[in-house]
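Bug: token stream looks shifted between consecutive jobs. Job 1:
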Amino acid sequence: MSTTVLVQEPERGQTHACPTWVPVLVGRDPERCKIAIKDPSVSRAHCELYAEMDGRLRVKNLGKHGTWIGEARVEDTAHARAGDVLRLGPTRTLLVVGTLDPLAPQRDPQGVLNVPQRLEPHFVLLRPVGRGGAGIVYEAWDEAKGRRVALKLLLSGGRASAELIERFRREAALQGTMRDYPGIVKVWELGTLPRSGELFFSMEFVRGTTLRHRIKDGLLRAEGVRLMARVARAVHYAHEHGVVHRDLKPSNILVTDRDQVRLTDFGVAKALEDQDGLTVTGVLMGTPNYMAPEQIEDAKRVGPPADVYGLGAILYHVLTGRPPFQGDSLNRMLDQVAQGDYPAPEELDPTIARPLGDLVRAAMVVDPGARTPTARALAEGLEAWLRAVAPARKVSLAPPRPPGA
């Protein structure tokens, strides 16, 4: 059985198979080219791809605009390997993903799925993009729907406990109820892999990074505040739909290439009206650095104020570059949370405006009843600061004045 080299259009996620011994034409002409790319800078027949048995992809340039493998121009023919980027003309690219080999092992020694591989019922796994305590998330191509997705699998698969399986299903269901809001990652499909019995759900794939990485790379203050206002709006929407996230943290906030936010990972979320016993009193549900004091005491009885607190703690991190609590042990950190013992943002950075520090303090009050009342109220406070300090540019709709007027 022959192997196949997989290539991907990075912009939209579309994947294409290049079987061994079969030339694959790439270009603008949809009648001639198996990989048709609508771009005037791509020639009608731009290049030919030919997969070889050793997993390399032979690339033959045919177009007048040129073909590159990385920074090297293909003068006639050259070879690309997994991870190489092919550039077609000045802008369009194809990524060589790797070899789809039906005889290769499905899993590594730790039981994690190898990539790339075709996965029943209708997915092609491309690469892992995230991992948590119970699940691993892959970038994948949904062959049935013709779209790029993020595919989350329950790590322990068919051996998972009944409670873990129910939590996984609950995450998909709760996140799925909010799919109409653009600030929350959409869930598409919940299912079971036919052979292994592993649970999965597919989600909207977000091109970008996490807020955690954005903070690490350095955020302008106004940019960070603007992102947090959008996150607070998304959290308020979840609350309006009866869902408390309970694990708000920078790594659960995705930031797109266009600086939009997407809230994700509702793995420990709680439906306000549901008393199903899934949350066990005394078990830590959340991340200590961003966890409200009442959540440490009893995660079963937390409500929207716990998420408001989490937003305040993330805002602290955005403003200062570090989380509010930094104990040398978990118990020490939990004591600090319970007592509200953290340095004021202005102590760490005197350039932080007092109104922003006040928004942090109001959201992180130890008593949940005395906090900022809603996530929307926090968003409005942040937006008011932005209007005063970093107003949006005014757009003029007047016609341009003629020269010399």
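Job 2, same session, no restart:
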Amino acid sequence: MSRLGNLGARLYRGEVGYDFIGNRKIWYGISILITITAIVGLAVSGLNMGIEFKGGAVFTTPKTSVSVEKAEDLASTSSGHQAIVQKLGNGGLRIQITEVDTSKSDAIKGDLSKGLSVPEEKIAADLVGPSWGEQIANKAWTGLGVFMVLVVIYLAIAFEWRMAIAALVALIHDITITVGIYALVGFEVTPGTVIGLLTILGYSLYDTVVVFDSLKEGTKGITKQTRWTYSEIANRSINGTLVRSINTTIVALLPVAGLLFIGGGVLGAGMLNDISLALFVGLAAGAYSSIFIATPLVADLKEREPQMKALKKRVLAKRAAAAAKGELSEAEQSDRADRGATQDVAPAGAVVGQRQEPPRGHGRTPGKRR
């Protein structure tokens, strides 16, 4: 078994682990700081809305030897607005200019034909109205609202309302950070960005539900025992699914990182940045929130219940009594038993200890028949 697999098995059995719940105030503080930074960036810089939302014209030219920088200067001078130019795979250019109407687009098209030395009839011009972008934005907000409501209802039924609230807080946390990163970086917001934002909600919820399911199984009949408190079981649930969450997140991030850094950065395919940045930031934030936000928040809410408070008092009282007698508590005995059990398992599937042979009947000698 690999080191990572061995670590995952030990985390699952509770032999090793990190106190995520005990240090939850640190994670809350980090998340609040990141969220405030994202909100400030959004308020100061704002989102760089694409032409689909602001309206304007998109000009597509055939192959030309003119550089992107020169084309940007030409288009900006002709239109009086900032132009965004992207190099296409066939050697042509895609030029976006916001706030351009039909009458002005014809004049810009003529200027581009002269400046780029291409026939005017071969330059394709598409006009986008701002009303279309408003429709997309409204539908996106509607879809987001419906998704949030359905998630809360489902989690409240499948688990409980406290887990539904914690998952909702984690989702809002992830969306806020992703949108704030967009504002700080200055990437253009397009319909691809909206698709990316809606996509990360599912990824963010996946890791959270995995931990919640483990927590639900571990807390069945919790008030009938005096070994663990709710927070301790929640912490064991996080550690038990930690390696799985890390593995799935890394596997999901690798192709997205390829789109963002290689496709968008090295190859210059700027249109890939729209969706890849949202996915990359959202996946990372979703993995973080499922471990450091959602489950600790559930533990905080549950520990406020009278039953959980009474359970915690019984557990601590029993441990104090055991410590006074110089005995090990049930939790410590369980941990020691788990560690002892793993010592009986040899690597490579070897069997440790004396092998028990099945009893032989009537004193027969193997291999002989009467």
